[in-house]
Write a structure and sequence with these properties.
Length: 65
């Protein structure tokens, strides 16, 4: 059986923590920042964890990570 390929787009967007959870960056921080409050922008800086319902399909995209 051939090796499985990692989806490179997913590998660039997600990192695995020490406990095996997937870490992601938050959306809505790219443009149109003038109407967003400083508190909102500050909270968007922090990374978040991928929801449990999405972990299994994401791990399938990242077989060796």
């Amino acid at each position: 059986m051939p090796k499985m390929k990692t989806k490179r787009s997913a590998a660039k967007r997600f990192k695995v923590t020490g406990s095996g959870k997937l870490k992601r960056n938050k959306a809505y921080r790219r443009h149109i920042l003038t109407k967003k409050s400083p508190k909102t922008k500050r909270n968007l800086r922090k990374p978040a964890l991928v929801d449990e319902s999405n972990v299994k399909p994401m791990k399938r995209l990242l077989p060796y990570i």
